[in-house]
Design a protein that fits this description.
heterodimer, A: mainly alpha, ABC transporter involved in vitamin B12 uptake, BtuC, two-stranded antiparallel sheet, 14 helices, 2 strands, globular, B: 332 residues, mainly alpha, 73% helix
């Protein structure tokens, strides 16, 4: 079964690559500038925060949970980093990075502990923490903005530094994707994410602590959201309460489009990255082909529905229908 | 959404459900009622403006529209599904109403279009979940973007204004004295939903589907149809809420009612409905509506900004689910 599943996944990723390529070819026939290397680099760089969050969300969804608080986590971490920078402009970047990852991790851990120790459904926990984290930003900042002239140059410059033709922001996304590939395919922890999502009861019998694994997934998601938080604030050089509002939907969309099954246990790093890139290409292509950016929300909504329909159809095997509905009924 | 360790928590064989569960529900509701009274008393001490008939009447607008949706959502969650697109349905229904208003339609047509749009959106959600077999969380996260996205396509950063004067009846009208039209609609719906859920075969079927969908199927309940009807109802109620909200605000923007799905779900969960499905009651949701309305109104009188209130709502949502579980954990 696993062999057939991996081949299915591989083909699904292949389909996604083909779709992204097709979109780019279609656009380039009328606007050749879109596929120029410099533009592709900027599209990838624009998509990097989404890739980072999608990597974390992937792990969470694999364990049959969902994390709707990532965008609020990103915004809160970013605001704290920005305010710290205003207070201590000479603080080295390493401190901001460590603080961002740590703070994001703490927020992820808070979600995780509620899911693990109290058994509260993840959707309830993260719907709640989503508004709580967002509210805390207001309490911290009093609703005011931190603008670019208040931040120090090295703070905002870090994600924009170009190394080997790519900005640091892009490199971080690439490195994190690489790290996640290693974790998911080469470590016991990575296997246990799949085991917990694929069949939690069997996972328990093989000695995996389901709740703890879900907790770790939330911490990873939180850490990546925190990291993306600093990078976001620094790149756009502004921090305010509503930053990345509704971004959690894009993140879930990227995962679902990337073939990560919301029922858990199915999905790959490659899928999450491709799902994010698909949304990134669409988002960047809309203004090029002269479609109002107001279309973007509806398009990503339609993409979620189409992708999840396609995935559910592909997952469905004959004779398992009743079993499936029984699982859902639990 | 199916959770990993949900087996055994709060799930009993239906013929054992009757007496002990009913008692538990009753105690939850009476606890909630005590909370409501407590908040009421606190508020009346905290602000001299609280105990005024017109102020209290204003306070009801904090929850009437959300509660309309919460009734249908309660049934949907009891049946084991969820609809996160309700706020976006409001946006789309309100936009549709704006479009026909601009085309010169009168109040009856505007209202009808609002309700029908809601019904159509609910039907689409129901189709995705029951026909295509999509998990309701993802399907409605998708339609959440889609429905509001269509509003943005139509309106961009603009707005519809200039609804006819007679349209203001729903959101700004008063049935008599301080009793608003919205409050009357809320009360009527509360009674209707309580009867449907607690006194009809359909209500029994909703519980059965939420407790054990396979068992319900084998005992002759058309599980898919029950769920589809509930999605339709939730859509219709969102359409009704859109009529009231649009009428009250007098304008339509694509960002209308954003984030309201959270408050509706919080209201339902606060009302004692099990988020995993299978149990809950309408009286609980009614009291929860009052509790949330009183909390937000009280905080508003104390000049607490809206986003800080949302922290309270978030904590309320988690706290309400966490407390019984913490209690269980401590007693073990």
């Amino acid at each position: 079964m696993s062999a057939s599943l991996t081949s299915l996944l591989k083909s699904r990723e292949a389909i996604l690559v083909a779709v992204i390529a097709l979109v780019m070819v279609l656009i380039s026939t009328r606007f050749p500038g879109f596929v120029a290397l410099s533009n592709l680099v900027s599209v990838f760089n624009d998509t990097s925060p989404l890739i980072l969050l999608a990597l974390g969300q992937m792990v969470v969804i694999l364990t049959r949970c969902i994390d709707l608080s990532v965008a609020a986590n990103l915004a809160l971490t970013g605001m704290v980093c920005a305010m710290l920078n205003v207070a201590y402009p000479d603080l080295p970047i390493v401190v901001s990075l460590v603080l961002a990852v740590f703070l994001g991790g703490v927020m992820g851990a808070f979600n995780g502990i509620l899911v693990w120790k109290l058994g509260i459904p993840p959707i309830v926990v993260t719907l709640g923490t989503m508004t709580i984290y967002r509210g805390i930003i207001f309490l911290l900042s009093d609703g005011s903005w931190v603008n670019s002239h208040e931040m120090s140059a090295h703070f905002t410059g870090f994600p924009r530094q170009v190394i080997l033709g790519l900005p640091v922001l892009s490199w971080i996304a690439i490195v994190m994707a690489g790290v996640m590939v290693l974790v998911m395919t080469r470590t016991a922890l990575g296997r246990s994410f799949y085991a917990v999502g694929g069949n939690p009861h069997a996972a328990v019998y093989t000695g995996i602590d389901v709740g703890k694994t879900q907790f770790i997934a939330f911490v990873i998601s939180g850490m990546l959201a925190g990291l993306a938080g600093y990078l976001w604030i620094a790149r756009y050089a502004v921090a305010y309460v509503d930053i990345a509002g509704g971004f959690e939907l894009d993140v879930v969309a990227a995962c679902v489009i990337g073939g990560i099954s919301i029922a858990g246990g199915l999905g790959t790093v490659g899928g999450a990255v491709l799902g994010a890139l698909f949304l990134g290409v669409i988002k960047n292509a809309l203004p090029v082909i002269d479609v109002s950016p107001f279309w973007q929300l509806a398009i990503s909504g339609a993409a979620i529905i189409l992708a999840v329909t396609f995935n559910t159809r592909a997952d469905r095997t004959k004779g398992r229908v009743i079993l499936k509905s029984a699982e859902q009924a639990q | 959404m199916s959770m990993t360790e949900s087996t055994g928590t709060g799930r009993r064989i239906p013929d054992q459900l009757a007496t002990p569960a009913q008692k538990a529900l009753k105690s939850w509701e009476s606890l909630l009622l005590l909370v409501a009274i407590g908040i009421f008393v606190l508020n009346s001490f905290a602000s001299p403006y609280f105990l005024d008939a017109w102020n209290l009447s204003d306070a009801t607008f904090n929850f009437t529209e959300k509660a309309m949706i919460a009734f249908a959502m309660a049934l949907l969650i009891i049946a084991g599904e969820i609809d996160l697109s309700v706020a976006s349905i409001i946006a789309l229904a309100s936009t549709a109403m704006g479009v026909v208003m601009q085309a010169g339609a009168g109040t009856p047509v505007i209202v009808l279009v609002g309700l029908l749009t809601g019904l159509a959106c609910g039907g689409f959600n129901g189709f995705l979940v029951t026909r295509l077999g999509l998990p309701s969380i993802v399907a409605t996260i998708g339609t959440m973007s889609l429905f509001r996205g269509i509003s943005y396509i139509v309106l961009g950063d603009g707005a519809f204004r200039g609804y006819p004067d007679s349209f203001a009846f729903f959101g700004q009208g008063y049935a008599f004295w301080v009793i608003s039209v919205e409050l009357v609609i809320f009360a009527l719906l509360a009674v209707i939903y309580a009867i449907v859920l607690h006194r009809t075969n359909f209500g029994r079927a909703v519980y059965a589907v939420g407790n054990n969908a396979t068992g319900a199927l084998f005992s002759g309940i058309r599980v898919g149809r029950v769920k589809f009807i509930l999605f339709l109802l939730t859509g219709l109620m969102s359409g009704l809420a859109a009529v009231c909200l649009t009428s009250r605000l007098g304008s339509t923007r694509p960002s209308i009612a954003s984030g309201m799905e959270l408050e509706v779900v919080t209201m339902v969960v606060l009302g004692g409905v099990n988020i995993l499905g299978g149990s809950g009651s309408i009286p609980g949701v009614v009291i929860a509506a009052f509790v949330m309305g009183l909390v937000t109104f009280g905080l508003g009188l104390l000049n607490v900004p809206g986003i800080v209130m949302s922290i309270f709502i978030g904590m309320l949502l988690i706290g309400v689910v966490a407390l019984p579980r913490l209690w269980k954990l401590m007693r073990r």
